[in-house]
Amino acid sequence: MIIREFLKTIIIIILHASLSKIRGKMDCVSGWCKSKRRLDGQTAIVTGSNTGIGKETASDFYARGARVIMACRDTNKAEAAKKEIETERQSETNLGTLIVEKLDVSSLKSVREFVGRILESEPNINILVNNAGIMYTPEGKTEDGFELQIGTNHFGHALLTLLLLPRLIKSGPSRVVCVSSLLHKDVREFDFDNLNFEKTPYDPKIAYANSKAANVLFAKGLAIKLKEMNIDNVTTYSLHPGVIRTDIGRNFNQTVGFGATFAFNYMMGPFLKSVKCGAQTSIFCAVDETCAEQSGLYYSDCAVKQPSKLCQDEDLATRFLDHTVKVLNLSNYKAFGESDPPKEILG
Fold first, then answer.
1. Active site residue 208
2. Is residue 209 part of a domain?
3. CATH number at residue 211
4. First CA to last CA across the chain, in angstroms?
5. Is the CB of residue 172 less than 8 Å from the CB of residue 233?
6. Is residue 343 in a domain?
7. How far apart are CA 335 and CA 328, in angstroms?
8. Which domain holds residue 47?
9. Number of folded domains in the chain?
10. 104, 201, 216, 103: which is closest to 147 by C-alpha?
11. Taking the model in full, what pTM does it have?
């Protein structure tokens, strides 16, 4: 059953990619951020930036002159990635700064510790890219009791965003970018009470789709709340980066079936974007002037697209933001102001 559903997903993605090519949306041809905007004097945080599109996003911001916080679980890999970026960009001028900081978004304790350090060292935060993510993992729970995929892909990033929000507001104009996936459209019903699979058997595909729908709903819900609070200097974005040649399929053999990782990497090879191309929509949402006044929308190929009908529901997005705040025990925390979170929240 799982393998059949996986193959169905591959066929859908291949057809989508093929149609995109027919329309001319090929790697290195379209769907690229064309903005030349500089980021001198600005600070950007990119989670999961030691590899894949996160690394490429950090490299782009660095080339634009930003102070880039590479927030990664494995600091050794992050330091190696930092050196690679610096080497690749060494012939360029007016570069920014790369700083490695430890952050494991699957751990709320790690998120709080990271935020504490960042608020002490960074007077301004202008861009937050919630990029780190996992896909189709074996059944598991985070140390805080969340299903592993939604705990990592959503709740960790949500806590990070809400704790940094006062500094983002104070530093505005600022942007929050949430990397989602086209597969968020697989969610037909968003059950707040079963996100940890306590009522139904675990399904890695549904768990991943839930976490990606959560990214879209969180970005939309945050935008709605910011507007209600008359805060117009922080904008939010969610996006599908495309299907990209990264190691995101490393768990497929365990959760889908033997040979699934090979099928993803090689059968789909001709239809996958390069990492550089895959990072473009994240970069677009973070820097492009044309979307500076837009907030809460969903993007793909550097353009506004319609998310699933479910994720267009503003009432659902608002309720899910409230649910997230409650689950993270932040109900008494004033995230939509300019005062940093109190020490008791940071731990």
1. yes
2. yes
3. 3.40.50.720
4. 44
5. yes
6. no
7. 12
8. 37-241+274-331
9. 1
10. 201
11. 0.88
